[in-house]
Amino acid sequence: MKKYYLAIDIGASSGRHILGWIEDGTLRLEEIYRFPNGVKQTDSGLVWDMESLIREVKNGIRKCAQLGRLPVSVAIDTWGVDYVLLDREGARMDPVYAYRNSRTKNIPEEIEKELPFTDLYRRTGIQKQDFNTLYQLCCDRDSGRLDRAARFLMIPDYLAYCLTGRAVNEYTNATTTAMVDAREGQWDGGILERLGIPSRLFSPLCEPGTPVGDFSQSFQQEAGFNALVRVCPSHDTASAVAACPLDESGVFISSGTWSLVGTESKVPVISAQSRKWNFTNEGGIEHRYRVLKNIMGTWLFQNIRRDLCGNRTYDEMMQLAMQSACVRIFDVNHPSLTAPDSMIQAIESLADLSQAGLGDILNCTYHSLASAYAETVREIESLTGNQIHRIVIAGGGSKDDYLNRLTAQYTGKPVFTGLKEATATGNILSQLMADEGMSLGAARSLVQSSFHMKEVIV
Fold this sequence. Notes:
The model has no long low-confidence stretch (mean pLDDT 96). The chain is 40% helix and 22% strand. It is globular, with a radius of gyration of 21 Å. The strands form five sheets. Strands 15-16-14-13-17-18-19 form a seven-stranded mixed beta sheet, with helices on both faces. The protein has a six-stranded mixed beta sheet with strand order 3-2-1-6-12-11, sandwiched between helices. A two-stranded antiparallel sheet has the order 4-5. The protein is α/β, with parallel strands linked by helices.
């Protein structure tokens, strides 16, 4: 009898429910449900529609019952940084702010007076970004929201809470908050105390694979069955990296709305140089570290397409770029690209492309992304002392053949693709490891034998 595991993988633009099982020694995946996701503009700025997210998560689980393929366990991964506060009655405190909300714009400079970034980075190893959870919570502190709050949950922790009624804090996603001691792997009480963030909001961090609990009685009736909810590496990049066949000479690019470019290490890489280059040390499976840099990814193309009112497909945009000979490199992480009213106008201004056509704008964007990847790979080699011999591009963005070829061209390294559903794969592997006692090495070997990894030809 087949044993099914359900990965609920939610990104900034869409979510999907993917069933995984082992058949004839091979890991099989099947997407059974997909739904749109995105921020919405309100009087409070950009926020997440949590009611819609909860509804869609439950709809996808009910689909399992409709198909008669009931998972033994379920795990949820999402983007990092964002969170939900619960009040003393266990109810969600709205709004749930999105990381692109402008409320934190000046907060890092203000916090610098209370806690210098050099001290913060030395303790957490987390890069400086305006939207870091720590800065968001300081906004809540200043507004008085924290006085009314009883619990802090990252987005996947909260969704698991909605299914089970039980609240936990998972390790990998917590590390994105800039509030976890990189060496100890637990909340840094000194940081919380220094910034006046109540430690009562947080529970001890739990590892991927930890059971949260069965579906609540009420949801069992809704779903038509019961399953165990586990925590996976609930930061989506942590799940993606868990699936990647990597060693110390390998780099991963988790290509999606954000491109996360990094390597896996058994120790954090925290130095003055890593701080200068804005590298982050996020938690991974088995307490490994994802030493990486966040680079604006397909967010750029998503918003260019939005400017075009969806009148061009991504493939058509790629073809337009390939027909252009215009190459101007711009900073893809420039603040003006974070949440512009018009991405096309923002890029035109940043790269001095006001007289350029759409194909030229797209081609410059492609080349700028690939150039940023190459620079990051060189920095990784410098920081770790390891010569990089292999790059694995995983995630939805790995379907972009032009960007893959440019990445190989700019880095001069062998580039491999083939893990389009890397995040869901890593999510499911963590459930398998917990349920079957499988080692990480065996899980990654299963990936290599189950999916065809192919080298990109320049």
